[in-house]
Design goal:
It is built from 13 helices and 19 strands. It is of the alpha+beta class and 425 residues long. The chain has an eight-stranded mixed sheet. A hairpin with a 4-residue loop joins strand 12 and strand 13. Helix 3 packs antiparallel against helix 4. The termini are far apart.
Length: 425
Protein backbone atom coordinates (compact mmCIF):
# COMPACT_ATOMS: atom_id res chain seq x y z
CA UNK A 1 0.00 0.00 0.00
CA UNK A 2 1.05 3.59 -0.52
CA UNK A 3 2.96 5.00 2.44
CA UNK A 4 2.34 8.59 1.55
CA UNK A 5 4.54 11.51 2.41
CA UNK A 6 7.22 9.45 4.02
CA UNK A 7 10.59 10.27 2.49
CA UNK A 8 11.13 6.77 1.14
CA UNK A 9 7.85 6.93 -0.78
CA UNK A 10 8.62 10.41 -2.15
CA UNK A 11 12.08 9.32 -3.30
CA UNK A 12 10.86 6.10 -4.95
CA UNK A 13 7.83 7.75 -6.63
CA UNK A 14 9.11 11.28 -7.20
CA UNK A 15 7.55 11.95 -10.62
CA UNK A 16 4.19 10.46 -9.65
CA UNK A 17 4.05 12.48 -6.42
CA UNK A 18 4.91 15.72 -8.25
CA UNK A 19 2.33 15.08 -10.98
CA UNK A 20 -0.40 14.09 -8.52
CA UNK A 21 0.16 17.15 -6.34
CA UNK A 22 -0.12 19.41 -9.41
CA UNK A 23 -3.87 18.66 -9.24
CA UNK A 24 -3.80 21.03 -6.26
CA UNK A 25 -2.59 23.84 -8.55
CA UNK A 26 0.87 24.04 -7.08
CA UNK A 27 4.24 22.64 -8.11
CA UNK A 28 5.80 21.01 -5.05
CA UNK A 29 8.84 19.65 -6.93
CA UNK A 30 11.30 22.11 -5.37
CA UNK A 31 10.15 21.32 -1.81
CA UNK A 32 10.16 17.59 -2.53
CA UNK A 33 13.75 17.76 -3.82
CA UNK A 34 14.75 19.65 -0.67
CA UNK A 35 13.11 16.94 1.42
CA UNK A 36 15.16 14.24 -0.29
CA UNK A 37 18.38 16.29 0.05
CA UNK A 38 17.73 17.05 3.70
CA UNK A 39 17.05 13.39 4.39
CA UNK A 40 20.32 12.39 2.68
CA UNK A 41 22.14 14.99 4.79
CA UNK A 42 20.41 13.73 7.92
CA UNK A 43 21.60 10.18 7.22
CA UNK A 44 25.13 11.38 6.57
CA UNK A 45 25.28 13.41 9.80
CA UNK A 46 23.76 10.54 11.78
CA UNK A 47 26.33 8.06 10.41
CA UNK A 48 29.22 10.39 11.25
CA UNK A 49 27.79 11.09 14.69
CA UNK A 50 27.35 7.37 15.41
CA UNK A 51 30.95 6.74 14.29
CA UNK A 52 32.30 9.49 16.56
CA UNK A 53 30.22 8.34 19.54
CA UNK A 54 31.37 4.75 19.03
CA UNK A 55 34.98 5.95 18.88
CA UNK A 56 34.57 7.89 22.14
CA UNK A 57 32.94 4.86 23.77
CA UNK A 58 35.83 2.59 22.76
CA UNK A 59 38.43 5.12 23.86
CA UNK A 60 36.69 5.54 27.22
CA UNK A 61 36.89 1.78 27.82
CA UNK A 62 40.60 1.80 26.94
CA UNK A 63 41.20 4.75 29.25
CA UNK A 64 39.57 2.90 32.13
CA UNK A 65 41.74 -0.17 31.53
CA UNK A 66 44.92 1.93 31.30
CA UNK A 67 44.23 3.71 34.59
CA UNK A 68 43.44 0.35 36.18
CA UNK A 69 46.89 -0.88 35.04
CA UNK A 70 48.60 2.31 36.27
CA UNK A 71 49.38 3.52 32.75
CA UNK A 72 48.28 7.08 33.40
CA UNK A 73 50.46 8.64 30.67
CA UNK A 74 48.85 6.53 27.94
CA UNK A 75 45.42 7.08 29.51
CA UNK A 76 45.84 10.88 29.52
CA UNK A 77 46.95 10.75 25.91
CA UNK A 78 43.73 8.98 24.95
CA UNK A 79 41.73 11.44 27.07
CA UNK A 80 43.12 14.24 24.92
CA UNK A 81 41.93 12.39 21.81
CA UNK A 82 38.44 12.22 23.34
CA UNK A 83 38.49 15.96 24.09
CA UNK A 84 39.55 16.67 20.51
CA UNK A 85 36.58 14.64 19.18
CA UNK A 86 33.94 16.31 21.40
CA UNK A 87 33.67 19.57 19.39
CA UNK A 88 33.01 17.53 16.25
CA UNK A 89 30.30 15.59 18.09
CA UNK A 90 28.64 18.84 19.24
CA UNK A 91 28.79 20.22 15.70
CA UNK A 92 27.22 17.07 14.26
CA UNK A 93 24.51 17.04 16.94
CA UNK A 94 23.60 20.65 16.11
CA UNK A 95 23.58 19.89 12.39
CA UNK A 96 21.35 16.89 13.00
CA UNK A 97 18.88 18.88 15.12
CA UNK A 98 18.67 21.68 12.55
CA UNK A 99 18.36 19.27 9.62
CA UNK A 100 15.63 17.23 11.31
CA UNK A 101 13.76 20.42 12.14
CA UNK A 102 13.95 21.69 8.54
CA UNK A 103 12.98 18.26 7.19
CA UNK A 104 9.94 17.94 9.47
CA UNK A 105 8.81 21.49 8.68
CA UNK A 106 8.92 20.79 4.94
CA UNK A 107 7.20 17.41 5.27
CA UNK A 108 4.39 19.06 7.23
CA UNK A 109 3.87 21.58 4.43
CA UNK A 110 3.16 18.91 1.80
CA UNK A 111 -0.55 18.01 1.51
CA UNK A 112 -1.92 14.55 0.82
CA UNK A 113 -1.71 13.07 -2.66
CA UNK A 114 -5.10 13.19 -4.43
CA UNK A 115 -6.66 9.94 -5.55
CA UNK A 116 -6.30 9.14 -9.25
CA UNK A 117 -10.00 9.91 -9.87
CA UNK A 118 -9.67 13.45 -8.48
CA UNK A 119 -9.66 15.98 -11.31
CA UNK A 120 -7.40 18.99 -11.49
CA UNK A 121 -9.32 22.18 -10.78
CA UNK A 122 -8.85 25.64 -9.37
CA UNK A 123 -11.60 25.87 -6.74
CA UNK A 124 -15.23 24.92 -5.96
CA UNK A 125 -16.31 26.05 -9.44
CA UNK A 126 -14.51 23.00 -10.86
CA UNK A 127 -16.09 20.44 -8.52
CA UNK A 128 -18.00 17.65 -10.27
CA UNK A 129 -21.68 17.06 -9.49
CA UNK A 130 -22.15 13.27 -9.25
CA UNK A 131 -25.76 13.25 -8.02
CA UNK A 132 -28.58 15.77 -7.74
CA UNK A 133 -32.08 15.18 -6.42
CA UNK A 134 -35.17 16.86 -7.84
CA UNK A 135 -36.11 20.29 -6.54
CA UNK A 136 -39.84 20.82 -6.04
CA UNK A 137 -41.18 24.12 -7.39
CA UNK A 138 -42.63 26.53 -4.81
CA UNK A 139 -45.46 28.93 -5.57
CA UNK A 140 -45.05 30.98 -2.38
CA UNK A 141 -42.79 34.00 -2.08
CA UNK A 142 -40.31 32.40 0.29
CA UNK A 143 -38.63 34.17 3.20
CA UNK A 144 -34.98 33.60 4.14
CA UNK A 145 -34.39 31.70 7.35
CA UNK A 146 -33.13 34.73 9.29
CA UNK A 147 -36.48 36.48 8.77
CA UNK A 148 -38.39 33.30 9.65
CA UNK A 149 -36.22 32.82 12.75
CA UNK A 150 -37.19 36.29 13.95
CA UNK A 151 -40.87 35.89 13.01
CA UNK A 152 -41.30 32.64 14.94
CA UNK A 153 -38.76 33.49 17.68
CA UNK A 154 -36.66 30.34 17.21
CA UNK A 155 -33.17 31.79 16.65
CA UNK A 156 -31.98 35.12 18.06
CA UNK A 157 -28.91 36.47 16.27
CA UNK A 158 -28.84 39.82 18.07
CA UNK A 159 -28.82 38.18 21.49
CA UNK A 160 -25.88 35.99 20.48
CA UNK A 161 -24.07 39.05 19.17
CA UNK A 162 -24.71 40.82 22.51
CA UNK A 163 -23.43 37.92 24.60
CA UNK A 164 -20.45 36.92 22.44
CA UNK A 165 -20.33 38.38 18.93
CA UNK A 166 -21.53 37.68 15.41
CA UNK A 167 -21.56 34.02 14.45
CA UNK A 168 -22.79 32.82 17.86
CA UNK A 169 -26.61 32.54 17.60
CA UNK A 170 -28.97 31.73 20.45
CA UNK A 171 -31.57 29.02 19.73
CA UNK A 172 -34.88 29.55 21.51
CA UNK A 173 -37.96 27.47 22.31
CA UNK A 174 -38.84 25.30 19.28
CA UNK A 175 -35.57 26.33 17.62
CA UNK A 176 -33.60 24.82 20.51
CA UNK A 177 -35.82 21.72 20.48
CA UNK A 178 -35.29 21.32 16.73
CA UNK A 179 -31.51 21.44 17.29
CA UNK A 180 -31.73 18.79 20.00
CA UNK A 181 -34.05 16.67 17.87
CA UNK A 182 -31.66 16.71 14.92
CA UNK A 183 -28.69 15.78 17.12
CA UNK A 184 -30.56 12.81 18.60
CA UNK A 185 -31.87 11.74 15.20
CA UNK A 186 -28.40 11.85 13.64
CA UNK A 187 -26.86 9.90 16.52
CA UNK A 188 -29.62 7.28 16.40
CA UNK A 189 -29.16 6.85 12.64
CA UNK A 190 -25.43 6.42 13.11
CA UNK A 191 -25.62 3.99 16.02
CA UNK A 192 -28.25 1.91 14.18
CA UNK A 193 -25.68 1.62 11.36
CA UNK A 194 -23.13 0.14 13.77
CA UNK A 195 -21.29 3.26 14.93
CA UNK A 196 -20.37 3.42 18.63
CA UNK A 197 -21.39 6.70 20.24
CA UNK A 198 -18.70 8.65 22.10
CA UNK A 199 -18.62 12.06 23.74
CA UNK A 200 -15.10 13.46 23.27
CA UNK A 201 -13.47 16.58 24.75
CA UNK A 202 -13.97 19.81 22.80
CA UNK A 203 -10.47 21.04 23.65
CA UNK A 204 -7.40 19.27 22.23
CA UNK A 205 -3.67 19.62 22.67
CA UNK A 206 -1.17 20.55 20.00
CA UNK A 207 -0.19 16.93 19.29
CA UNK A 208 -3.80 16.02 18.51
CA UNK A 209 -4.31 19.02 16.23
CA UNK A 210 -1.10 18.14 14.38
CA UNK A 211 -1.92 14.44 14.05
CA UNK A 212 -5.16 14.98 12.11
CA UNK A 213 -3.68 17.79 10.00
CA UNK A 214 -5.23 20.93 11.48
CA UNK A 215 -1.74 22.11 12.46
CA UNK A 216 0.12 23.76 10.94
CA UNK A 217 -2.29 24.05 7.98
CA UNK A 218 -5.29 25.65 9.73
CA UNK A 219 -3.69 27.26 12.77
CA UNK A 220 -5.25 30.68 12.07
CA UNK A 221 -8.72 29.15 11.74
CA UNK A 222 -8.80 27.63 15.24
CA UNK A 223 -9.47 29.29 18.56
CA UNK A 224 -6.40 28.93 20.79
CA UNK A 225 -6.31 28.92 24.60
CA UNK A 226 -2.93 30.57 25.16
CA UNK A 227 -2.36 29.83 28.85
CA UNK A 228 -2.84 26.08 28.42
CA UNK A 229 -1.82 25.75 24.75
CA UNK A 230 -5.10 24.03 23.89
CA UNK A 231 -7.33 24.41 20.84
CA UNK A 232 -11.12 24.48 20.56
CA UNK A 233 -12.01 21.75 18.08
CA UNK A 234 -13.17 22.67 14.55
CA UNK A 235 -14.73 19.18 14.23
CA UNK A 236 -15.17 16.04 16.35
CA UNK A 237 -12.90 14.26 13.87
CA UNK A 238 -9.91 15.68 15.76
CA UNK A 239 -10.42 14.23 19.26
CA UNK A 240 -12.12 11.02 18.07
CA UNK A 241 -9.39 10.06 15.57
CA UNK A 242 -6.74 10.89 18.18
CA UNK A 243 -8.14 8.23 20.50
CA UNK A 244 -5.87 5.93 18.47
CA UNK A 245 -2.74 8.06 18.30
CA UNK A 246 0.44 6.01 18.98
CA UNK A 247 -1.53 2.76 18.70
CA UNK A 248 -0.95 -0.65 17.16
CA UNK A 249 -4.25 -2.38 16.40
CA UNK A 250 -4.82 -6.06 15.72
CA UNK A 251 -6.63 -6.82 12.47
CA UNK A 252 -9.42 -8.38 14.52
CA UNK A 253 -10.18 -4.97 16.11
CA UNK A 254 -11.15 -3.48 12.75
CA UNK A 255 -13.27 -1.92 11.50
CA UNK A 256 -13.58 0.82 14.11
CA UNK A 257 -16.77 2.90 13.69
CA UNK A 258 -17.34 5.86 15.99
CA UNK A 259 -19.84 8.70 16.08
CA UNK A 260 -20.01 11.73 18.32
CA UNK A 261 -21.83 15.01 18.81
CA UNK A 262 -19.86 18.13 19.70
CA UNK A 263 -20.10 21.86 19.37
CA UNK A 264 -17.48 23.00 16.84
CA UNK A 265 -15.54 26.27 16.69
CA UNK A 266 -14.07 28.00 13.65
CA UNK A 267 -12.76 31.53 13.45
CA UNK A 268 -13.64 31.79 9.72
CA UNK A 269 -11.40 34.85 9.48
CA UNK A 270 -12.14 37.12 6.54
CA UNK A 271 -15.70 35.85 6.01
CA UNK A 272 -18.28 38.54 5.25
CA UNK A 273 -21.34 39.39 3.14
CA UNK A 274 -24.59 37.56 2.45
CA UNK A 275 -22.85 34.16 2.38
CA UNK A 276 -22.32 34.40 6.15
CA UNK A 277 -25.70 35.85 7.06
CA UNK A 278 -27.91 34.03 9.55
CA UNK A 279 -26.93 30.36 9.92
CA UNK A 280 -24.93 30.20 6.70
CA UNK A 281 -21.55 30.45 8.42
CA UNK A 282 -20.99 30.46 12.16
CA UNK A 283 -18.09 30.57 14.59
CA UNK A 284 -19.82 28.05 16.88
CA UNK A 285 -22.10 25.32 15.57
CA UNK A 286 -23.25 21.80 16.40
CA UNK A 287 -22.23 18.78 14.37
CA UNK A 288 -22.50 15.00 14.53
CA UNK A 289 -19.49 13.21 13.06
CA UNK A 290 -18.75 9.67 11.89
CA UNK A 291 -15.18 8.35 11.97
CA UNK A 292 -13.80 5.10 10.56
CA UNK A 293 -10.46 3.33 10.99
CA UNK A 294 -10.02 0.67 8.34
CA UNK A 295 -7.67 -1.77 6.68
CA UNK A 296 -6.19 -0.14 3.55
CA UNK A 297 -7.83 -2.59 1.15
CA UNK A 298 -11.31 -1.74 2.50
CA UNK A 299 -11.20 2.05 2.74
CA UNK A 300 -12.72 3.00 -0.62
CA UNK A 301 -15.57 0.55 -0.26
CA UNK A 302 -16.16 2.09 3.18
CA UNK A 303 -16.08 5.60 1.69
CA UNK A 304 -18.96 4.62 -0.60
CA UNK A 305 -20.84 3.19 2.40
CA UNK A 306 -20.43 6.45 4.29
CA UNK A 307 -21.64 8.49 1.31
CA UNK A 308 -24.74 6.27 1.04
CA UNK A 309 -25.34 6.63 4.78
CA UNK A 310 -25.44 10.44 4.56
CA UNK A 311 -27.67 10.19 1.46
CA UNK A 312 -30.26 8.21 3.42
CA UNK A 313 -30.33 10.81 6.20
CA UNK A 314 -30.95 13.67 3.75
CA UNK A 315 -33.62 11.65 1.95
CA UNK A 316 -35.42 10.99 5.24
CA UNK A 317 -35.30 14.73 5.99
CA UNK A 318 -36.91 15.25 2.56
CA UNK A 319 -34.41 17.93 1.62
CA UNK A 320 -33.24 18.53 -1.97
CA UNK A 321 -29.54 17.72 -2.09
CA UNK A 322 -26.62 17.06 -4.37
CA UNK A 323 -23.26 15.32 -4.08
CA UNK A 324 -20.04 16.78 -5.45
CA UNK A 325 -16.67 15.13 -5.98
CA UNK A 326 -14.12 17.77 -5.06
CA UNK A 327 -11.45 18.79 -7.55
CA UNK A 328 -7.79 19.05 -6.56
CA UNK A 329 -7.96 22.79 -5.91
CA UNK A 330 -10.83 22.44 -3.42
CA UNK A 331 -9.60 19.23 -1.76
CA UNK A 332 -8.74 19.48 1.95
CA UNK A 333 -5.06 19.43 2.94
CA UNK A 334 -5.21 15.91 4.42
CA UNK A 335 -7.71 14.30 2.04
CA UNK A 336 -7.19 11.92 -0.88
CA UNK A 337 -10.81 12.01 -2.01
CA UNK A 338 -13.76 14.01 -0.70
CA UNK A 339 -17.47 14.06 -1.51
CA UNK A 340 -19.38 17.15 -0.40
CA UNK A 341 -23.11 17.16 0.26
CA UNK A 342 -25.08 20.33 -0.34
CA UNK A 343 -28.76 21.05 0.36
CA UNK A 344 -30.71 23.52 -1.70
CA UNK A 345 -32.02 26.65 -0.02
CA UNK A 346 -35.29 27.52 -1.74
CA UNK A 347 -35.44 31.04 -0.32
CA UNK A 348 -31.80 31.93 -0.93
CA UNK A 349 -31.82 30.03 -4.23
CA UNK A 350 -28.42 28.47 -3.67
CA UNK A 351 -26.71 25.31 -2.49
CA UNK A 352 -25.41 25.10 1.09
CA UNK A 353 -22.71 22.62 2.13
CA UNK A 354 -23.80 20.37 5.00
CA UNK A 355 -21.31 17.48 4.92
CA UNK A 356 -17.91 16.39 3.71
CA UNK A 357 -17.08 12.68 3.56
CA UNK A 358 -13.37 11.98 3.08
CA UNK A 359 -10.80 9.21 2.80
CA UNK A 360 -7.39 10.28 4.11
CA UNK A 361 -5.81 6.89 3.32
CA UNK A 362 -2.73 6.75 5.57
CA UNK A 363 -1.85 10.47 5.65
CA UNK A 364 -3.32 11.00 9.12
CA UNK A 365 -2.23 7.61 10.45
CA UNK A 366 1.36 8.40 9.45
CA UNK A 367 1.16 11.44 11.74
CA UNK A 368 -0.85 9.55 14.35
CA UNK A 369 1.57 6.61 14.29
CA UNK A 370 -1.50 4.41 13.98
CA UNK A 371 -0.64 0.98 12.65
CA UNK A 372 -2.30 -2.38 12.07
CA UNK A 373 -0.48 -5.55 13.13
CA UNK A 374 -0.72 -8.03 10.27
CA UNK A 375 1.40 -10.75 11.90
CA UNK A 376 4.30 -11.07 14.34
CA UNK A 377 6.65 -9.13 12.06
CA UNK A 378 4.59 -6.97 9.69
CA UNK A 379 2.64 -3.79 10.38
CA UNK A 380 0.90 -1.39 8.02
CA UNK A 381 -0.46 2.12 8.50
CA UNK A 382 -4.24 2.20 8.92
CA UNK A 383 -6.57 4.21 6.70
CA UNK A 384 -8.76 6.86 8.36
CA UNK A 385 -12.05 8.30 7.09
CA UNK A 386 -14.60 10.73 8.43
CA UNK A 387 -17.80 12.51 7.51
CA UNK A 388 -20.37 14.94 8.85
CA UNK A 389 -23.64 13.21 9.61
CA UNK A 390 -24.54 16.03 9.82
CA UNK A 391 -23.60 19.67 10.46
CA UNK A 392 -26.67 21.37 11.88
CA UNK A 393 -26.85 25.10 11.01
CA UNK A 394 -27.49 24.83 7.27
CA UNK A 395 -29.74 21.80 7.78
CA UNK A 396 -31.83 23.93 10.15
CA UNK A 397 -31.78 26.82 7.66
CA UNK A 398 -32.93 24.52 4.85
CA UNK A 399 -35.68 22.89 6.94
CA UNK A 400 -36.99 26.32 7.94
CA UNK A 401 -36.88 27.76 4.42
CA UNK A 402 -37.98 24.73 2.40
CA UNK A 403 -40.86 23.78 4.68
CA UNK A 404 -42.45 27.16 5.18
CA UNK A 405 -46.17 27.47 4.53
CA UNK A 406 -48.74 30.21 4.93
CA UNK A 407 -49.45 28.86 8.42
CA UNK A 408 -45.88 28.26 9.66
CA UNK A 409 -43.05 25.78 9.23
CA UNK A 410 -43.68 22.06 8.74
CA UNK A 411 -41.28 19.69 10.52
CA UNK A 412 -40.09 16.62 8.52
CA UNK A 413 -42.00 13.48 9.57
CA UNK A 414 -38.87 11.62 10.63
CA UNK A 415 -38.26 14.24 13.35
CA UNK A 416 -41.76 14.25 14.89
CA UNK A 417 -40.92 11.69 17.58
CA UNK A 418 -37.84 13.72 18.48
CA UNK A 419 -39.36 17.22 18.48
CA UNK A 420 -42.74 16.42 19.99
CA UNK A 421 -44.33 18.88 17.54
CA UNK A 422 -45.13 18.85 13.83
CA UNK A 423 -45.11 22.56 13.05
CA UNK A 424 -43.55 25.82 14.14
CA UNK A 425 -46.07 28.65 14.15
Amino acid sequence: YRIMLQVKFIKENFSKVVDSLKKRNKDFSSDLKKIIDLNDNRKEYQLKLDTHLSMVNNLSKQIGELFKNNKSTDANSLKKEVEDIKPDIKKLQDLLINTNSALNELLCSIPNIPNDIVKKGKDEIDNEVVFESKIKPYELDLNEHWDLAEKFNIVNFELGNKVTGSGFPVYINKGAKLQRALINYFLDKNTSAGYVEVQPPILVNEDSAFATGQLPDKEGQMYHINNDNLYLIPTAEVPITNFYRNSILNSSELPIKLTGYTPCFRREAGSYGKDVRGLNRLHQFDKVEIVRIEKPENSYKVLDEMVNHVKKILEELELPYRILKLCGGDLGFTSCLTYDFEVYSMAQKKWLEVSSVSNFENYQSNRLKLRIKLNEKDKVLAHTLNGSALALPRIVASIIENNQTENGITIPKVLHKYTGFKTIN
